[in-house]
Task: structure prediction
Amino acid sequence: MNDFSGLDVRKIYTIVHKEETGSFHFKSIKRPFDGFVLITKGHGITIDRHRNQYPIGEGDMILVRKEDSYEFHFSSPCSYITSGYDLSFDGDDFPVSLPYMIKCSKNQIESLKEICNVWQTHSWDSYTKCRIMLLEFYLGVIKKEMKNHSYGSVTDVATEYIHENFKRNFSGEEIAKYCNLSLSYLRSRFLKDTGYTINEYRDLLRVKNAKEMLISRCFSVTEIASELGYCDVYHFSKVFKKLSGVSPTQFLKMNPV
Result:
């Protein structure tokens, strides 16, 4: 994915540098705009919509999307730059999973501070300048993330996760979050690289494992179905026959002790 023509920053509502003199707690139930929050002083924690907690401090920035929920908790004075604008990307399908935490470099921090300063001048060209600088920042983030998750490595990371978790019923969203990518991008990349959907690949691993368990004669078909995460024996047998051409019982007869 090298075409970023769909990326755009539309109306900018605010970019402001705030300072809190005491302990600071903020909770967004349903954020009204896209934007970023850059911590410029202090250390605390942030909590995402899945209730996962992460330490956050000076130089850390979180990219957030409209309607995201998250929290910040600081027990001592802190300062931060917060912003609000409308972000679009090819039908609202952003390639990097958001919210997304970034440990900003010195140059990135200075760039974000400059965006804030330009916006606060309220000059006739503030919007245009800030829009261009925000677009350049997002392009840099996306290109770096795409480089870190090259086509091969995206699939490698996903398949490794599937191999470690194929016995349970994980979701596509879970793997996408693990890979820090959007679900639609991961699905298309995985299918192109492997020829299988994520669920099909998981079923292949399950059936391979099921064959080994059947040949061992240590497990019943019901036990194998349960061990491999299938809701019932019928579903397991249906998948097994689809991928093997025979039912589990027929497979046993074809592989006598």
Notes: The radius of gyration is 24 Å. Strands lie at 7-20, 24-28, 35-41, 43-47, 53-57, 60-64, 70-74, 78-89, 100-103. The longest helix spans residues 126-148. The mean pLDDT is 85.
